[in-house]
Amino acid sequence: MTKYERSGESRKFDPNFKGPIHNRGCTDILCCILFILALLGYFAVGILAWSQGDPRKVIYPTDSRGQFCGQAGTPLEKKPLLFYFNILKCASPLVLLEFQCPTTQLCVESCPDRHLTLVKAKLGNKEDREYYQKFCKEGVDFAALSPPELLRDGLCPAMLMPSKPFTRRCLPALGTMKGGVVVVGNETTFDAGQGVSINASEVLEASKKSNVVVEARQVAMRIFEDYTQSWYWILLGLVIAMIVSLIFIVLLRFLAGVMVWVMIVLVILVIGYGIFHCYMEYASLKGEPGADVTIRDLGLQTDFSVYLQIRQTWLAFMIILAIVEVIIILLLIFLRKRILIAIALIKEASRAVGHVMSSLFYPLLTFALLAVVIAYWAITAVFLSTSNEQVYKVFNNSECPFSRDTCDPQTFNTSNASAQCPDAECLFAFYGGETVYHRYLILFQFYNVFLFFWCANFVTALGQVTLSGAFASYYWAFKKPDDIPAYPIFSSLGRALRYHAGSLAFGSLILSLVQVIRVLLEYLDHKLKGAQNKFAKFLLSCMKCCFWCLEKCIKFLNRNAYIMIAIYGKNFCTSARDAFFLLMRNIVRVAVLDKVTDFLLFLGKLLIVGIVGIFSFFFFSGRIKAVEEAAPSLNYYWVPILTVVVGSYLIAHGFFSVYAMCVDTLFLCFLEDLERNDGSAERPYFMSQNLLSLLKKSNEESKSMD
């Protein structure tokens, strides 16, 4: 069997072929129907989640009666903070199992700012009694009841201690004096009343355990607060990234060769500056107290700015950037001849983009559609995760047969549990439920994730088919630009939606299945982190690696299949096979031209991300003196920086994807042209003279590689 038989038959000369076929039919209809049914199911899940969910559970802390602290339009509107009657009970190991401190929790206007026991408050002046009553249950007759009665019925806390609001919760104002002595409000011990003394270290331990309960929520709330403070600056940063990307693309259209070399030099300089900045930070921390602590000793901290105060962090950043810099320089040295050829291909792509200028604005439609998909997924996920009901359980101090049983706070005082266990309380425990809806809630969440991947991949596929159809119309126009059809983008988009929605759904479905499997593997890996089975860990790592490679291969095949769909109008499987065999018959040219061009475009994205990222870092960290006052006050300044960096990459990727899709489409058309025609008067090439000279250079490269 010859090489060409293994790689399929070459294209034959067809005098009637002049680009994307207009007389075509619908493809992969069954998959189109399946996709429509899946979307209808997705809307049904969204409506069901909307009717059952309550996003307030994410925003507001909840007291022992399941009420939201600080919610507008409720009696607790002016009480935004959650106060624990006895923070020491949060030190119980049960907290880690049940995610709830077994003590009464109350919504208050402000946290205690002094140390005061119940007994002292009762014996003190009127001001002390009124102050203490703020932290008792509503409706308590503080003056009429004695301290033992108030404590027996759980109406008031035994003592107050200086506290500070932390993610809307009153936690002890912990600190350390010289020598590492733990203090709360400058006190090392407290009188808890009834002759009991409490050490500040015990309070620290209880605070740590209470932090474990709300650790994830605390970080999420801090991040949420940072977004509310900086969202307009983030939007401004993303708009700047969009403008820079657009300017870069327009300049690439007219000065392709110059811009590529400018891009290469600037990438090297930006990374070089990153290395220099990391070294300066590393050197400035020399001799600073605590700067020599290692990342391992520091452990996991929710305040990530702490890591920037140690030298090892900046050393790690410097080493990583230096490795990236060396790799890029070595690649540029070894690929220097092929880069010249790739630049010629980018110049040809620039001409194509110049004749189809509307293609530069198509990514805006892709961004808008992806924004809708992401917003729908996020809103549905929030409503699904908050659609559980309030579950109350019995919490007690002494032996009780009803301990941790489900209870009803409305009838608890008249129940057997209250009679047999006088010190027991019916407190809010968590959100859950036992209805049919709650039993299948995990399936709804999985369906939400799966449809998110499917819809996002469909939107991406639609963009790839639309752009490839437009650029194929440019390539197969014999007299450019006279033979280029009017409105090629709109014509290509219409063909894709009318005839090939099923094929796009089919390709997206295959990719989505692999991506969901990868998500499940990551979930299993997270669950097995504490396991000791090394073989299971090794097997899981191998599977993750294999599915990562599979996803990359499928993306590559899908991309080229969509180009063939745009040109010939065949179904997904046939188009994927034709594209694969075409590439296999020209595997050397693929390595010489296509991948080197992708590398150059990646450097362009890296440059835009680097420029925007550096400016956002200096702005949000308050290092630009001229705009220091304008910078928002944040818990984590890395939150907006990371958001801007990721957003800038996605924006740059969107704009550069036009060039990447143009290059890939021209490349496949170029290979088809070589097989269909021979350059004679009877079978002339459709390629331009520039591409013809590019062919000669690539042939020389191919011979040098053989």
UniProtKB/TrEMBL annotation:
At the top level of its lineage, which domain of life is listed? Eukaryota
Keywords of the record, alphabetical order, are: Antiport, Cell membrane, Glycoprotein, Membrane, Mitochondrion, Mitochondrion outer membrane, Phosphoprotein, Transmembrane, Transmembrane helix, Transport
Query: What terms describe the molecular function in GO for this protein?
Result: antiporter activity
Q: Where in the cell is it found?
A: Cell membrane; Mitochondrion outer membrane
GO terms for CC?
A: mitochondrial outer membrane; plasma membrane
**Which coarse location class describes where this protein primarily resides?**
membrane
Q: Give the reactions, separated by semicolons, that this protein catalyses.
A: choline(out) + n H(+)(in) = choline(in) + n H(+)(out); ethanolamine(out) + n H(+)(in) = ethanolamine(in) + n H(+)(out)
Q: Identify the Pfam families for this entry.
A: Choline_transpo
Q: Which InterPro entries match?
A: Choline_transptr-like
Q: Report the function annotation for this chain.
A: Choline transporter.
The protein depicted here goes by the name Choline transporter-like protein
Q: What is the lineage of its organism?
A: Eukaryota, Metazoa, Chordata, Craniata, Vertebrata
